[in-house]
Amino acid sequence: MSAALLSVAGLHAYYGESHVLHGCDCHVARGEVVTLLGRNGAGRTTTLKAVLGLVASRSGSVMIDGRETVALPPHRIARLGIGYCPEERGIYSSLSTEENLLLPPPVAPGGMTVAEIHAMFPNLRERRRSQGSHLSGGEQQMLALARILRTGARLLLLDEIAEGLAPVIVQALSQTILRLRRQGYTIVMVEQNFRFAAPLADRFYIMEHGRIVTGFAAADLPHRMAVLHEYLGV
């Protein structure tokens, strides 16, 4: 396994006085796809936000490509080459598809060109002049993902990208994740849809009550179904 691009140790996170993460430890190797599993409220989304510094306060260690970032503000963390695709997608309804796509500034060299993005997501080329509010849920999700690919980010944090989408769109997103994996992107996914996540990830972590309770490789999945049933009810 290659060296860890992301290494989290003893990570605590707070929203106001609420203590949400209780000493999380995990790592993600360069080029890996890792999925955080758990019930709603387990702390998965907060883990992504804490990596980016998007919480009221955090402590512990968050190493990105060998650099300690726990004291850095979010805008400096992003410029280490991290892209975040939030569950709510964050599409600006008054802007066109193309304006939404071009809005975020580059965070690192080597981002996809608009032509490359249109080749990956043909719907976005066809709807490039449509307002964000006129896009379907699937098209909005494609746009949210495409937006961070244009910035040059190589570490992608994806929060519930399959949620509420039609099966055909979920399948298209699955193929996109596999393609990005082949291209060397490092991906951390939060997913409730286990059927979507299972074929994509190299490794899994299970969270409960703000802690990572276990982790295992995809090859061990057939032997860990009892654990998944215990924590997820899959």
How does this structure look, described?
The protein is 32% helix and 28% strand. By secondary structure, the protein is an alpha/beta fold. A hairpin with a 2-residue loop joins strand 1 and strand 2. The longest helix has 16 residues. The protein is globular.
User: What is the multimeric organization of the chains shown?
Assistant: single chain
Biggest beta-sheet profile: 6 strands, mixed
* Alpha-carbon distance between the two ends: 29 Å
Low-confidence stretches: none
Number of helices: 9
How much is the average pLDDT? Answer: 94
Helix content: 25-40%
- Give me the secondary-structure category: alpha/beta
Q: Which outline best applies?
A: globular
Strand order of the largest sheet: 6-7-8-3-9-10
The topology string of helices and strands comes to EEEHEEHEHHHHEHEHEEH
Rg, rounded, reads 17 Å
Strand elements, count: 10
Bin the strand percentage: 25-35%
Layout: helices, strands, pairs:
Elements: E1 4-15, E2 18-29, E3 33-37, H1 44-52, E4 57-64, E5 67-68, H2 74-78, E6 82-85, H3 97-102, H4 114-120, H5 122-126, H6 137-150, E7 155-159, H7 167-182, E8 186-190, H8 194-197, E9 203-208, E10 211-217, H9 225-232
Parallel strand pairs: 3-8, 3-9, 6-7, 7-8
Antiparallel strand pairs: 1-2, 1-4, 4-5, 9-10
